[in-house]
Amino acid sequence: MASLKSDQKAISEALHKAQALRDILEQEFTFLKNNELDAFEKIQVRKSDTLNYLTENSPAIYEKVEQTLYDSLIEAFKVQMNECKSLHLRNALLVDRKLASTRSALELFKTPHNHSFGETYDKLGKLSKSSKVK
To answer: Per its UniProt entry, which superkingdom is the organism in (predicted)?
Structure first.
């Protein structure tokens, strides 16, 4: 019986951490979107600690999948982790876009170019081939 309570407590704690990670990822996206880089940096420690906890404890949680007593808790945990994965990918995409934009802006300052022609972009936001040939 004590083992059942400790298993349930461990799964509940992991679910709580997964929900906390989801909240951190939402905050991270907001900070990135609003260019609040100091706030973004500050939450990285909490994110790292939460990820470390989940990395260490998730294998034990998934081992309990066979025990039907915990189906609803484990399913909720899986849903949270999948949502966290999606949010992380969304945030990574935003970071990549911001980096590409910054690199592009820096490149404009580094590259001598003829100002008589405007630069044109294709649908993906990249310089069109006709603009690159100068």
So the answer is: Bacteria
Burial (CB count <10 Å: 0-12, 13-18, 19+), residue 95: middle
pLDDT value of position 63: 74
Q: Which domain holds residue 83?
A: 8-96
Domain presence at residue 134 = no
pLDDT tens digits, one per residue of 18-50 = 999 999 999 999 999 999 999 999 999 999 999
Residue 61 lies in a domain: yes
**Who contacts 114 (Cβ-Cβ below 8 Å, separation ≥6)?**
134
117 domain-assigned: no
Q: Count the Cβ atoms, other than its own, within 10 Å of residue 99.
A: 10
The rounded mean pLDDT for the chain is: 84
Q: How far is CA 112 from CA 3, 103, 106, in A?
A: 70, 15, 12
**How many residues in the chain?**
134
Domain count across the chain: 1
Per the CB < 8 A criterion, the answer to whether 12 and 71 are in contact is: no
Residue type, 102: T
Residue at token pair 């951490």: 17
